[in-house]
Amino acid sequence: MAIQIKNLEQLKLMRRAGLLVGQTLELLRESIKPGMTTDALDAIAAANIKRGGGTSNFKGYHGFPATICVSINDEIVHGIPGPRVIKEGDVVSIDCGAIIEGWHGDAAFSIGIGPVNPEDQKLMDVCEESMWRGIAAGKNGAKLSDIGYAIEQYINSQGKYGILQEYGGHGIGTEMHQEPHVLNFGRAGHGPQIVPGLALAIEPMITRGSARTKVLADNWTVVAKDGSRGVHFENSYVICPDGAPFVLTAIDGGRMELGRLGIEISDLL
Ligand code: MG
Ligand code: MG
């Protein structure tokens, strides 16, 4: 399948889906407490997506049974919500998506519950910043692999982390997962050019140990093979027709975080 290029009208619909995802994740961030089950978080997300006029793109995706993915500690991505109770000191990664009028949004964050190990906090900070560095590098006219290069360079500059290789970012639009696949590592200057109308989900996944993973018997949950803690941050962004980026799943469109990196966001959305 070819890369899908969206016009401004289509991007406005994508922003509605992205904003609903961003608002749902914000609600989950405010709601998450020790003693809660991951099922309870899933119910909050489902209700908020419904209230916002959207539908879940995760539920039923290759048979996935829930609205969000909740992955705790050595679980990195694709954890299935259930009766598991969230505890103080846990590191919880939540991934959420929604569809509005056929257009998709997809984003994720990791959070420490109460006081967490400072090394776990640093793991989250490094992963989140690498996502912003990746989005900043994926500017109009850049090459696709400039994103993964920026993500990997930043992570490696901060310490010794495992960067997952089997999973990465992706194009997004009228399907959640579109071409191109976006690696979180690699050399700069390769792959398709980043052009206006290209929307990408950027999602680094890193561990405090090795990058090797395995999938649990539920056929979904991806865990670190060495049992180390893993985290995941994701945002969907687009290059607007004016050549400036806009982060579809960030409530402020990425104004603050990209501004900090010297990049002005588009005011078209
Ligand atoms: Mg996601
Ligand atoms: Mg994604």
Detailed description of the structure:
There is one protein chain. 29% of the residues lie in helices and 23% in strands. By secondary structure, it is of the alpha+beta class. It has a single domain, classed as Creatinase/methionine aminopeptidase superfamily (Creatine Amidinohydrolase, Alpha-Beta Complex), CATH 3.90.230. The strands form 4 sheets. It has a 5-stranded antiparallel β-sheet. Strands 1-3-4 form a 3-stranded antiparallel β-sheet. The radius of gyration is 17 Å and the shape is globular. It starts with 7 loop residues before the first helix and ends in a 9-residue tail after the last helix. One magnesium ion binds at residues 95, 97, 106, 108, 234.
Helix/strand structural class: alpha+beta
Number of strands: 14
Which percent range fits the helix content? 25-40%
Strand order of the largest sheet: 7-6-8-13-14
Count of helical segments? 5
Average residue pLDDT:
97
Q: CATH homologous superfamily name? A: Creatinase/methionine aminopeptidase superfamily
User: If classified by CATH, what would the architecture be?
Assistant: Alpha-Beta Complex
Bound molecules: magnesium ion
Strand coverage percent: 15-25%
Runs in which pLDDT lies below 50 for 5 or more consecutive residues are none
